[in-house]
Amino acid sequence: MQSKNDQISELTELNEELENYFSNTIIPQLFVDANLRLRKFTPPAMKQFKLRDEYIGKPLEEIAETFRYPTIIENIETVIECGEILEKEIQTIDRDWFQMNIIPYKIKSKGTTNGVIITFVDITPRIRDLKEQEKMIAEHELLLDTIAHDIKQPINTLGLTIELIKKLSPEQSDRFPKLIDKLESGLSAMKTVVDGLGDTRLQPTGYQASEELLDLQNIIEDVRLTLSQQISERKAMIKLDLKDPQITFVRRKLRSALYNLISNAIKYTPMEIRPEVTISSKLEEGHMTICVTDNGIGISDAHQKLIFEKFERIQTSVDGTGVGLYLVNAIFTSAGGTISVESEVGKGSTFKIILKDTSASASH
């Protein structure tokens, strides 16, 4: 049998080894006893959570806010009660991310849990990388959806025009100039979409094209030219009320969103009515508000909740894919904005876009 002095010496040696480990580890660690009192912590934990030596022996509830993670006590209690390791990714209130492991400290001879050891591994850079990757994937998908949607109409126009040309007889040659104009219009629209894709690929961040200070009137004029055939055929009136025309946004995205809204406004106006589309903009309390108002068929209250869903089509009598308004919604919400609709069946619709105004900072 060991003498009392030998036992004391062995315990002292074990304690020194434990102290040496806690002093030299590079991982933030805590030792909390079964009474939820802080017993030890490593220097990295002291630095990461601003712990002080006088916290040793204090109930954790008195210093819990130091860890900036509201449910840490509940998690510790769960581990002490069940005796199982708890592993989870947590975010502190200052938005740092950690892989937290709470390991039960068991006394085998008694079969009890006498506390826990908690380790924290900073995974903030990894989480941020993952979020950036997710954002890029979402941007990629949105870009593909936008291209597929925006290029469909000019392709259809080209196809129909070519079919008409094939059916013309020599005596109908006077119709050639008008049909050639339609071909050129369709090709121009496709070129705009393709050029937008090319500009995006040249950006250093890949599919995430950079924002720039834009003039709404110029963007709308570009859309007007692209939709010239549709506007001409329906004799549509495009009115502008741009009290504040400057906005900071990604050119391709803003053009695509307005293209969809204006095209829909014309397309969903009854044939016996001349389409009238009004685009307005103004700054309100640090936000840019853009409204697109039409005199079309309107949207019922029940359908207003569905129109921004992908592949959701309210009117099947008009050509479409159910993607346009989904894309518009995705474009503005991904930029931190919102889009809503006010409408009444038979009395037209107003799509209201609200974006944070960054034009002032962008111009400096």
State the end-to-end CA separation: 82 Å
Structural class: alpha+beta
Shape assignment: elongated
CATH superfamily of the largest domain: Histidine kinase-like ATPase, C-terminal domain
Q: Characterize the main sheet.
A: 5 strands, antiparallel
The run of helices and strands is HEEHHHEEEHHEHHEEHEEHHEEH
- Order of neighbouring strands in the sheet with most strands: 2-1-5-4-3
What is the average per-residue confidence, as pLDDT, rounded to a whole number?
79
Number of domains: 2
How many distinct beta strands?
12
**Number of helical runs?**
12
Contiguous uncertain segments of 5+ residues: 200-207
Question: What is the CA-atom radius of gyration, in angstroms?
Answer: 32 Å
Instruction: Identify the CATH architecture of the largest domain.
Output: 2-Layer Sandwich
Structural write-up:
It is elongated and about 120 Å long. The protein folds into 2 domains: 119 residues, Beta-Lactamase (2-Layer Sandwich), CATH 3.30.450; 235 residues, Heat Shock Protein 90 (2-Layer Sandwich). It has a 5-stranded antiparallel β-sheet, with helices on both faces. The protein has a 5-stranded mixed β-sheet with strand order 7-9-10-12-11, with helices on one face. It is an alpha+beta fold and 364 residues long. Helix 5 packs antiparallel against helix 6 and helix 9 packs antiparallel against helix 11. About 2% of the residues have low confidence. Helix content is 46%, strand content 23%.
